[in-house]
């Protein structure tokens, strides 16, 4: 079964890893949000791509979900002595990724080409694609003004109250090579349990992607479990946008794009309302605490896709 | 006695450190070559400024003369796994300097301002000035084509044969704030035992600096001892430019700019010819193996300046 997964950072990376453990490599394409990307100290940093690749390459920090296992922080410590901004955690090994990406971009390589090269170096077999090779920037509109995503998320620890989102450059940005083709030829597209507002929505904002998905079988996995986000500000964002956070709210958020929806067993009481939206549902354990959980969830979702969405 | 020292990297840094140990901080200005500066992985790297500042700040690697003491190489090791160019040795702590410099330059600060800030952080009391705040680039013309200095020096280990030098941007570049004033008000200007072709000459090429030095009392310290360079390609460059390397050749190279010349005792037989050029001379131990040597040489040079150049 040909599968496309749309993913943001840590939560998306876990399910992407689970899917990679279940599917032949040539059957899985992961399309990654790049609207969190930013330039810091002159370096181009792509947090979600890095989290996805480190996870798939087995070199991610298992405790945090982001950054690299066995990371050291010598440069960051030296930056502190220079009173430099150190709100973004730059590990010594992680820095090499940013340095080499920046160097290759300056030499004219595309983000897709660089990502493909990194995947090859890290032994990643499945296809990882940035959503676009053009820069797109999530701006979080807050009660403290407009903030680029990383500042909102890391520097201000998502404390400002959200009023809206915009994805600068998205409508002019073309999907990266292979993205539309992968969606058009897939048997199922999976929205990973990533933040709908700032991880999946930016991908959907890229020219042509939403249209391609409307012709696909799409299953979303709820990142809201028991009314809370497993990680990050997703639940807080729903609340501040005036919507009580719930699995159902996630299903409504994606609306007519979806054919199926995966929610946690703790939210099974919402299945009736979600089915009333015309969606097939799967209630299962969605919390991924270890690699086995990832694989188990991926297997369940793929079985659900095979059985329920055939018709 | 107000002193200005012109310096390149390791050799210059040693004498600059010796002078800083002898003079009240407000009496010493060090003007540093920045024509070796280059952009690597998107970062602005200023090798000579860093060597000077690390040395003056007491944080230089005492074994190499460049880089930082207790340095680690975790990012460089990770870069190797990405098949990135690693011919330039980027230490983890050194990287912080490049990152913060790059960030501040992008924010609109000048190289002078950034250098002043770094000096303050590193407890450096004497004034360290880049020769210019504008980019100047040494191009080494070789039998393997034109090479930017760092590529010639580090990547190709100064193996290509030299045919000439040019300092791109030098004539349009203004001296950094304070440089001309320091030269105009100094009692003695010292050319450190740095490479005449690629460390001191680029400084002299900056608009106004040579003219200001013509009105100053200038003493050069020979970087050629016993016909050889203590470090780097200075002797090889003299040879390839058709000039047998010697202390006398260095004196002739600087020509009418000089009033005095310091050579090593092993070259004392050249004193007669150098005096015949109209220069006062001091033959002394010029090889600086430790901080005591630096201070002793600086004291000798300052005493020489006081006695011989008064008239």
Would you give an account of this structure?
The structure is a homodimer of 311-residue chains. By secondary structure, chain A is of the alpha/beta class. The first copy, chain A, has 13 helices and 14 strands. In chain A, β1, α1 and β2 form a beta-alpha-beta unit. Chain A is globular. Chain A starts with a strand and ends with a helix. The mean pLDDT of chain A is 96. At the A-B interface, α3 and α4 of A face α3 and α4 of B.
Count of the domains of chain A? 2
CATH class of the largest domain in chain A: Alpha Beta
Strand content of chain A: 15-25%
Gyration radius over CA of chain A: 18 Å
Profile the largest sheet of chain A.
7 strands, parallel
Subunit arrangement of the protein: homodimer
Query: Which two protein chains have the largest interface (Cβ within 8 Å of the partner's Cβ), and how many residues from each?
Result: A-B, 29 and 29 residues
- What distance lies between the first and last C-alpha atoms of chain A, to the nearest angstrom? 15 Å
Shape of chain A: globular
CATH architecture type of the largest domain in chain A = 3-Layer(aba) Sandwich
Uncertain segments of chain A of ≥5 residues (pLDDT<50)? none
CATH topology of the largest domain in chain A: Rossmann fold
Helix segment count of chain A? 13
The CATH superfamily of the largest domain in chain A bears the name CofD-like domains
Strand order of the largest sheet of chain A: 5-2-1-9-10-13-14
What's the SSE pattern of chain A? EHEEEHHHHEEEHEHEHHEEEHHEHEH
Helical amount of chain A: 25-40%
